[in-house]
Amino acid sequence: MKKLLKQVIPVLLAFALLAYALRGMPLASLLDQFQKASRGWIAVTALVMGIQTILRAVRWRMLLQGLGHTPSAGRALSAMLAGSASSVIIPGSGELLRCTLLQRSDNVPITESVGSIITERLVDLLATAVFLSLTLLLESGRLLTYVQQYMQLPDWFSAMSGGHWAGLAAGLLVCITLTIIGLRSVFRWQSVQRLAQRIRLRERVDGFRRGLMSIRSVERPSLYWLTTFCIHGLSLVVLASLFRALPITENLPDSAALTVFALTSLGSLTIPTQANIGSYHFLASRGLVAYGMSLVAGTVWATFSHAIITLVNFGFSALGFLAALRFLRGGEKTKTYKVSKTL
Fold first, then answer.
1. Which residue ranges traverse the bilayer (predicted)?
2. Arithmetic mean of pLDDT over the chain
């Protein structure tokens, strides 16, 4: 029952937020903007998202190589995309499928690959905090105006300068770092080791710990962090391209992409909705209000951009799923051939 609720609640919350965000929006206006959308900028968006997806697979492969495994970039990419396709259908199933496929194709232990995925999530959280800090420094005035539209802020909050925001962001980064250090310490506790021995899960715990600490074994750390920066930087390029794709947003400054990215990333972390449906529409549309757009226009762009991003991701995921099946069939044929040759 609890598992079912965990799957149903994000979906219900997503559609509730979507209905709230789209209330009062004329359908004719939305369809008109969709018809006027620039096909060229949509193609640029798809291209950038493709590069971003490949970089994510390359980054994950770096972690796995640090653990001593050598899956090809193609198999890592197909497993990752197949997991994304699974998550669209069954929330939360993507990571498990992703790790299972790589275990079957390259014999990577599931515990280690799960730990590497959690490491990815922590690194992405750190990168999001950096971009959020950058947004607070560059767009603090607009964000303050945005927040004041929906709540009455105390005077001390309104008086905070860019330096204060930088200090707050630094404190946030310190908290995240301490949390990571704390997680590392947890795995060193003797009590955890004794418990693992008693319930015969020591190998699983050790594998998970190795996966979680895989970032320490990356052969070229500078390249890993550069890849992470490029992945999140390309998210800004995607949003900027989608601004140019619609007539109502083509004149927005590029800094608006930074604001929308910060708000929607924060929303994806705090509001657990399926595929960011609803939370993305609500936060992106109201973020654009700070740049002089009407709420209706902001909602139109949010609906358009989310639709394009979702369709492109779904297309890539479907291709990845088909590729994963091909790799698995190839692996099974190879194993059959080896057994027959041995006999």
1. 40-58, 125-145, 165-187, 223-243, 255-271, 283-302, 308-328
2. 76
Give pTM, 2 decimals. 0.75
Q: What's the sign of the alpha-carbon dihedral 284, 289, 293, 299?
A: positive
- How far is it, in rounded angstroms, from Cα 314 to Cα 216? 33
Distance CA 250, CA 141 (A): 22
- In this predicted structure, which of 193-202, 225-234, 236-245 has the lowest mean pLDDT? 193-202
Q: Which residues contact 146 (CB under 8 A, 6 or more apart)?
A: 286, 287, 289, 290
DSSP conformation class of 109: -
Torsion of CA 108, 109, 114, 120, to 10 degrees: -40
**Ordered alpha helix ranges (H), 107-220:** 110-138, 140-148, 155-158, 162-186, 190-198, 202-212
pLDDT in tens, 261-318: 888 887 776 666 666 777 788 888 888 888 888 888 888 899 899 889 988 988 888 8
Task: Specify the 3-state DSSP secondary structure of 246.
Answer: coil
Question: Residue holding tokens 């001593």?
Answer: 68
